[in-house]
Amino acid sequence: MTLEQLLKIASEKENFKDLKDYTEFCSAFLDFVGTPANIQAEIVSRNESHYRFLQFKNDTFSITRPLNSNLLYTSKTVKQPLRQFSKILSGVKEMDTPENREIVNRTVYTIQQSIGASLDALPAGASNTARKINGDLFERLIRLILVKVGIDCTSGVVNVPIETDEPGEGFSMSYQHDLIIKSGNLVKIIGSVKTSSKDRLDKIFVDKFLLGRLTGKDVPHIAIFLNDVQRKGKNPREYGVNATFLPGHFKGYTIKLNPLDGVYYFDIRPNMRTEKILKDHIQTFDNFLFKDLWAFLKRAAVVAQIKPQDKATTP
Fold this sequence. Notes:
- The protein is an alpha+beta fold and 315 residues long.
- The protein has two domains: 3-147, no CATH class; 151-311, no CATH class.
- 40% of the residues lie in helices and 24% in strands.
- The protein is built from ten helices and 13 strands.
- Strands 4, 5, 6, 7, 10, 11, 12 and 13 form an eight-stranded mixed β-sheet that branches. Strands 1-2-3 form a three-stranded antiparallel β-sheet, with no helix packed on it. Strands 8-9 form a two-stranded antiparallel ribbon.
- Helix 2 (19-33) packs across helix 4 and helix 4 packs across helix 10 (285-297).
- The chain is globular, with a radius of gyration of 20 Å.
- The chain starts with a helix and ends with a strand.
């Protein structure tokens, strides 16, 4: 498959309707970049050497986002994990092993970065379009994974009923969410699914605060992020990575507003493993899928009417 073909597929969201579409694209991308003749250069990050940038041989010699070589599978290593991936999801409760957790984290990271890196070949003027497509496809990927493990989830609007002191004067407030996990019409978990926390962290904390105040109930709020790194530098020879995560904001909101019930990363930053507060509230995605999800589902639900807008199994 050529770069042009990969880009054409990645640019159309309707090409990703189920998990098989994602895994097949991932395989095709890795086969492409695994062929030396297709890549102009591989650039090693100056400050964190496990991050690499791929430069394509297109007209503009586009360079990809930073890719974590500790997480990204290659064309030679991906085949077995992709075969195991669906099996693990289908029996997630019985397949909780360190090996399977690693397969889940690395497979999802590799799948999503194959899409993002392909979209990096779009012209510079289309960067906003690429970012929107990439984000939407990541949200859909997470929902498809949860559907595969047997969870009823969607994106859409939660209508929160508001009672007043005046009879018959009640109304509702609508909130759009990336991830709504439910049982019937009972909201069990609200989730935000983003490729990065950049410019989005504040809203997630405020959403939990407002929903709790409006309903008087504690519905679990989670956030799922792919990574929080971006390219820095203008000269490819000096490329490095910058963290986009704001630890001060996260700690402040956690202590002074309300903590989120779970924050999960695929490419987790080192300070999230070592700094107090961060390490207590941020984990890798496998912890949600294999453990926390099932504990949240046992908690009391907020009774709210749901207007789904995007089923996980549809474009």
